Amino acid sequence: MLSAFQQFFTGRPTIAIARDLLGKLVTYDGPDGRTGGYIVECEAYLGENDSASHAYRGRRTGYSESLYGQPGNIYLYQIRGHYCFDIVVQDAEEPQGILLRGLEPAVNPALMARHRGTTGVSVTNGPAKLVQALGIHSRQLDGQPMEGNKLTVDLTTFKIPREIITAPRVGVNLAGKDGAAPQRFYVAGNPYVSGMRKREMDLATQGWRA
DNA sequence: GCTACGATCGACT
DNA sequence: GTCGATCGTAGCT
Question: Where is the signal peptide (predicted)?
């Protein structure tokens, strides 16, 4: 039996789940304090049939094993010496995940900036940056459920995006089968979206509904 | 054992 | 805009 928390992450299209995650609050209870932020950008990876997915063509190794877990689990992996954080969705038969790419700091922003050694939007405007800002520097949480964990998402604390933009994913081979698929979602105008240009930012509302 | 290659970042022009 | 650093994983010999 799935909990209400797990049910949020299954039973409907991954793309719909990804859009619903925008504005939700991610928190981490680290050894040097609690950090957290609102999700402003994420990407959907649709499992074995998605050429950009780690599970493409049924590829299943120790490295990507966590994708084949329960909905709401943590998939924490390393790429080019950096950690990235996915939320596992659907179920063990469908190795799908949602990559978090941008957070708006909300819980202890000063500590998050210290973790990154910088200030401003570059604290969390990228998948590896937000992981480092939260204070995560190992794969210790990989494969664990988020519910009741140190690293979790609070589905009851959220902001409502004014407008959601759909776009192709970042850093994937555009020439690949699904390279140009519109599976990236972000809050229009929010400065913590990766690659957001200054003139596209909405500094008055940060992209949130009043 | 060895090599190639990323769901990236930051420095630089 | 371009480019190099970086390092764990996978796949091959």
Answer: none
